[in-house]
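Problem: given the chain below (72 residues), write out its structure.
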Amino acid sequence: MAAPVEKKVTVASVAAFLASTGLLAILAAVQDNARLVGFLPDSLAPFVLALVPTGITFVGGWAARHTPRGMR
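Solution.
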């Protein structure tokens, strides 16, 4: 069984996806050419491309060593 995913890793991954999708959509609009990846439909490209930094963020956060917090 895989180790549980911490909430902060999930939140960081969702934030990376949303930010990447927004930036890629803006980039496509500013360039006046939505064909970021030729084989994908224009409306789908920003969402699919945003999965790359999202995956990197998730794997990095999940694999990172976390130090336990002491009692205050």
